[in-house]
Amino acid sequence: MSTHLGNTGKVTEYVIEIEGLSKTYANKFTAVSNLSVKVPQGVFGLLGPNGAGKTTTIQILVGAMKPSAGTARILGHDILRDSLTSRKLIGFLPERPGFYDEMSGRRFLCYMGELSGLSHREVSSRATELLEWVGLKRWGDSPISQYSAGMRQRLGLAQSLINDPQVLFLDEPTANLDPLGRADFINKVRELAGQGKTIVISTHIIPEMEQMADHIGIIARGKLVVEGSIKELLHNSRPGIYRINVSQPELLVKELEARDFIVKTSLKDGQFLVETRDGDKLSATIVAFCSEQHQQLRLFEPVRADLQQVFQEALERVGGSDGS
């Protein structure tokens, strides 16, 4: 993993470091509470229910809002003390991007590029490249007023990349896309990550997050509940649950319920699930049972967790959302 040297003079292997970030409004409502997380290079997902605090967190990180407490560093540059530098390193696609409808898509991209400090020649070349990349080459010279919601979202993605940022923040980016558009967007996110960019995505759509992200942080009620790589989180979620199929599961239920290493059993609609503290003991017990009772063991496999399971378990710890 690459390292970065920021304005603190400290070398870090993380692209974004968030420390104790909080946001409380004048009405005493706390949207983000003491949030700390380190984001490695790649695709990082902020996952949470609507109102969990994801958008507020991103708005603080891109400089659109001041935190009540805490700070963050982007590639080593503090977002408060060195905000001009940190903003030059990022691109941002808000949930509801704004446009000048009378402009063409090309002119809009050039205008935003010039505001970012690019020369006329640079923005012209970059705009052409991005219009083709997001699939708007044919409509690049048409007024934005004629664009569909999905086309506007793709133009917003192009705008967020006009300055070729190292870090990209995308807030609910697939909201206005149809299924084909969403699939294409997911591929583009992975393509950007392959170019070495770091992408922070907020969403509540779990299947999309599982396809896009390398690491996630689950937020609820403005607090970080759990974070880590998706692979690690899936591995650690309910590791002791097994799916079993034997000839007479009722007999096995009675056998297992007497064992101290069994947490619980569930037999419903022909599916037998067992949660255990010791998979090896469970396996040995089932083999012995089948041999003694002349039962056929048709299936014995661990239940693979999915991101939905991880998400639900995380929310159960805090009781839901209530942020913004």
Structural description of this entry:
This protein is of the alpha/beta class. The protein folds into two domains: about 5-230, Rossmann fold; about 240-305, Alpha-Beta Plaits (2-Layer Sandwich). It is about 35% helix and about 25% strand. The protein contains eleven helices and 16 strands. The model has no long low-confidence stretch (mean pLDDT about 90).
Oligomer: single chain
The outline comes out as elongated
What's the rounded overall pLDDT mean? 88
**What order do the helices and strands follow?**
EEEEEHEEHEHHHEHEHEEHEHEEHEH
The percent range for strand residues is 25-35%
Number of E-type strands: 16
Q: What is the count of helical runs?
A: 11
The largest β sheet comes out as:
6 strands, mixed
- Please state the second-level CATH architecture of the largest domain: 3-Layer(aba) Sandwich
CATH topology of the largest domain: Rossmann fold
